[in-house]
Amino acid sequence: MAEHTTDQNVLATITRLVKEEEALYEGSMDDHARVRLEDLKVQLDQCWDLLRQRRALREFGKDPDEAAVRPPSVVEKYEQ
């Protein structure tokens, strides 16, 4: 994420990643595309988690800038 993250920055990153993900699904799925797709899924999970953190902090009167990107080992263990 950027040095100063805002909800709008996170949402813009999500939009960009989703577009890339859709493009991969539309193309031929070679090994490189599969690896990139898995990477995109992790990045999307991290972005959505960051956005949820920011919104929760704001809801409880705290600074949303205290939110931080969590590592893949954390966000990938969340239940959907």
Descriptors for this entry?
single chain; 80 residues; mainly alpha; 3 helices
Our measurement of the CA-to-CA distance between the termini, rounded to an integer number of angstroms, reads 23 Å
Count of helix runs: 3
**Number of discrete domains:** 1
Strand content bin = under 5%
Blueprint of the fold:
Elements: H1 7-26, H2 31-59, H3 72-75
Short description:
This protein has 80 residues and is mainly alpha-helical. The chain has helices at 7-26, 31-59, 72-75. It has one domain (7-75).
Could you please describe the fold and organization of this structure?
The chain has helices at 7-26, 31-59, 72-75. Helix 1 (7-26) packs antiparallel against helix 2 (31-59). 8% of the residues are buried. It has one domain (7-75). The chain contains three helices and no strands.
